[in-house]
Amino acid sequence: MLESHPAYKLLTEFYRIKPKPVKVKSIRWSKDIYPKVESDIDYDLNSMDWEQLWSGVTSEPGIVMFRYHAGIAGVLVEAIRAFMNWRRKNKEKRVLVVIDEVQEVAGSRIFANEKEKYYLMGVIEEFIRHARGLGLPLVYSTQRPYSISPILRAEATYIMMGAFKEEQDRKALLKLLPRHPDLRVIENLLTHHMITMHKDYKWMILYDSVKEEFTVVKAIPPPCMIEQAGKSPYKILEQHGKIVEHSPKRLLQKQVDQVTTEKKIIKVIETCSQTE
Amino acid sequence: MYNQTMLQLRLLFAEVTRTYFIEVEREYRLKYEWATKPKYLVKLMSKAKELKEEGKSLLYEGKFPKPFLEIPRRYWGSGKPVIHGVIEIRQASLPILFRDEQPVTTLIVSPRGGGKTVTLTSISVYAVDRGYTVINFSIDPESKLY
């Protein structure tokens, strides 16, 4: 589909899918905010109130971007664990979790420390395993079919596949699928990598593990993306929403301020009682 | 085979009538012409203008209907994707977030540039429109520079 095509814009007028603001909050741990994080992976975040953070960001509908980078694997582990604990107490909240490039997250070149890498991978797998129990719809994506762990495959209700150009990737992809009468058809279809790569197709083969059937789907870009075709989706979403930066430094500062004011109040009360 | 001209897609509404649009409200059915036929585009544009002038309320407002369109089996069932002619696409009837009161887990495996992020964003916007908070764990693009 040519998103840049004038007719496509007209389509939005037909359907009246007007681009409306999508609130995007961004939680970013950058090098500038925490210069120590790079060298100190086990950063002490005991004073960080994660529950407060998760309650805060899920108070209204919107997209919360949780961005992280090399050297903060410890923070991510903390964040995921805290999120799971928070979710156990707040199952009624409407939350969807999206993990983009799950293999990159769970273990890859960005983590220099092997021990750290496997630890994080374990936590992410645990999270995916418990998602159903926590009542959490979950979407995770990867571009490396040969490195998908069996847990990621086993927990999936839907597997959406693109056609890979390399035979090695296609073989790995087919290994993810169970025996099925349609497997031959899918195998043939996967050799036409254009169905995924060409902008006019962008098809994806969807395997429904409940119904045990294959379908071919095409994602409808959200209205805000239709308007600005070719740009990074996250950037567009940010442009359309209000960006609120939640930095741990600021949150910690808030907590410190709160504690100091509480202490001050206690002191005042104490002095008052003494004078009486 | 995959000729650029052949694949240049033109949007086509075959039945550009009000009845069709009302029907589409539920079905979200689209038709595409896979050939270079500008007449369809002209037809579509004139119809759009006409309806706009009439001030007719067409379809759905507000919520993003569904994140996927379904390509019927007849266009790919042979193992070879259709490369010319008209294809009919309808809104996928798959439950996206919950299925039989159980949360849905979706794994997307696709090469770089294959539409993974678009799909994730579509699902996210679909969820946001239904009152969900989407927590997106992703790598900081700046971090890739290190």
Key traits:
heterodimer, A: alpha/beta, three-stranded parallel beta sheet, three-stranded antiparallel beta sheet, B: 146 residues, alpha+beta, four-stranded antiparallel beta sheet, two-stranded antiparallel sheet, 4 helices, 8 strands, 31% helix, 23% strand
Mean pLDDT across residues of chain B = 63
Cα(first) to Cα(last) distance of chain B is 42 Å
Structure classification of chain B: alpha+beta
The number of helical runs of chain A is: 12
What's the helical proportion of residues of chain A? 40-55%
Care to count the β-strands of chain A?
8
Number of domains of chain A: 2
Q: How many strand elements of chain B?
A: 8
Structural class of chain A: alpha/beta
Low-confidence stretches of chain A: 5-11, 13-19, 30-46, 108-112, 240-252
| Overall number of structural domains of chain B | 2
Order of helices and strands of chain B: HEHEHEEEEEHE
Description:
The complex is a heterodimer of chains A (276) and B (146). Chain A has 276 residues and is an alpha/beta fold. Helix content of chain A is 45%, strand content 15%. Chain A has two domains: 18-156 and 223-253, no CATH class; 158-208, no CATH class. In chain A, the strands form three sheets. Chain A has a three-stranded parallel β-sheet, covered by helices on one side. In chain A, strands 5-6-7 form a three-stranded antiparallel β-sheet. In chain A, helix 2 crosses helix 3 (73-89) and helix 3 (73-89) runs parallel beside helix 5. The longest helix of chain A has 28 residues, at 248-275. In chain A, 35% of the residues are buried. With 146 residues, chain B is α+β, with helices and mostly antiparallel strands. Chain B folds into two domains: 1-94, no CATH class; 95-139, no CATH class. The longest helix of chain B is centred in the first third of the chain and has 17 residues, at 38-54. In chain B, 34% of the residues are buried. Classes of the chains: A alpha/beta (276), B alpha+beta (146). The interface between A and B is large, with 113 and 88 residues.
